[in-house]
Amino acid sequence: MISEKSKIFNEVLVDAKHALDSIGIPFHLHSGTALGAHREHDFIQHDDDIDLAVFYEDVNDKSSVDDIIKSMENNGFDLEAKLGKLNRGFELKFTHNIQAVSLDIFWVYPGRYRGKDYYILSSYYGECDNLKHKMCVWAYRPYDTVKIKFLGHTYNVLPKMTLVDAYGKDWKIPKKFNYYEGLEEGYKSLIRDYFKPVPVDNKIAFCFLLYDSVVHGKQWYDFFKQDKFPIKSYSVYSHVKTITNKTQEWIRENHIRAIKTGWCEENLVWAWINLLKQALKDPNNKYFVLLSGECIPLFGFWDTYKEITASKKSRINIDLNSEATIETGLAYADQWILLNRKHAELLVELKTTEKGKEFVKNIRKLIGDFCPDELYPVNWFMENYGKSSFASFKREFNVMPTTYTYWDGKHTSPIRYTSPRMRKDKGKICSSGALFARKFNKKAGIELSGKCDKRKSPRRLSRRSRS
Prior knowledge:
The chain is α/β, with parallel strands linked by helices. It is about 35% helix and about 20% strand. The two termini are about 50 Å apart.
C-alpha cells in the first residue's frame, strides 16, 4: 500500500520527468531517491526531498540550463537556487509549487582524486559552507546507470555499486539520518580531506543565562560538535545562578562568577553585561548571542554560523506597540538578542561609564512594573543610535527575532510547546527568521532541535539578515 507521502513525491517526480524528457535531457535518480528505488522500491519515508542528477557531458552549456529551468517552471516548479558554476559543482534547487516538495538536480563531472578516475558531484549548505570553495565534494567510482521500474515509470538510476560507495556495504540496512547528520558521519563518498578551517578571528560567543543547567543540553552538545575543526569558530560563556549536579560539564568549564538574580530583576541586565565583559576579553569574538537555558538551536551549527556572520549588524526584536511602550513611552524588545562587537562594547558601558549610570538612574523612574532586561538594552541603544529617527536605528540593527517564543496573549509567560503543538507550528517557527527557539518539553525539543532546513528557504533568512 503506497503511503500518502509517496503519492505526493511520485507526482512531483513524474512532473520533473515530463519536464526533462520533453526537452531531451537525460537524467537519473541519485542519492536518497536512488537508494529508495533499489532498497524500498519506494521513496524513503523520512527523506525530505527528491534527488536527480545529469552528466556534465550531456548538459554543459548555458542555453541547456535555461531550457531546464524554463521547462521545470512550466511543469509546476519554482527555482529556489542556482549553486556553483556550470563547469564545476553546479546544482539547481527547485520546489514544487503545489506540493511544496524540494527537488535537486546535481551535475556529475568526470574527475580525478588521489590519482584515480572518479565521478565528482558537489552539494551546499551546512558544514559545506566552511569547506574549500564553500561546497562539499563527493567522489564515486565511474558508473553506468541502470533502468528500474519505479512506482509505475521507468527511470535511469544509480547502480548498486555506487550505493556502496555512497552509503557503505551495508546500504541495504535502513539508517535514519538527514543531510546534515550525513555530512557528519553517514555519507561514505564525501571527500573528507577537502576540509579547511574557518577563520579564527570571526568567532561567535554563545552566552547562556542559566538557573542551573541547559535544559536541552544534549541538543546543544550535538550542535557544537558539528564544528570539527581544531581551532573552534565559537566560544561558550555561562552565568549559572546555582550550580548543581544537573549542571553540564561543558557549562561548568565556561561559567563566570555569578551574581544574585531573580525573574524580572535589574540584576539580570548586570549578569548579561558580566557575560559580555568576559567574552570581550577574546579579541576574536565578533558576535555575541544571549541565550536562555530553555532554548534550542533551530538550524545546524554551520547554517547558524553563516547566518550570523553574513551581516555586520546586530539583531534586536523591537515591539513598538507593546503594552510597555504604550504605558511608559519606552521602546520594548526581547531580551534574547544578538550583538556585534561594537554594540557589545556599548552595552557594557551601561554599567561602566557615567553616561550609562545616569541613563540607568533615569530609566528606573519610568519602567514601572516592566522588566529591566526588556527595556534597558534597547533604550540604551536607542539613546545612542535612534534619537533622530527609527531609520537611523535600523542602519545599525536588524529588527528581527534571534530567539522564537510563542505568546498566546492570555498568559504572562510564553507557551511551552508539546510535540503535537510543535509539529503544527513547525513551519511558522522555522520561517520566523529566528535562529533559536525556547520553551519546549523534552520530546518537542529533541524533535525540533537543528531540524529546520535552510535549504528549503535559502532566500528567506539570508535576505532578511542582510536588510
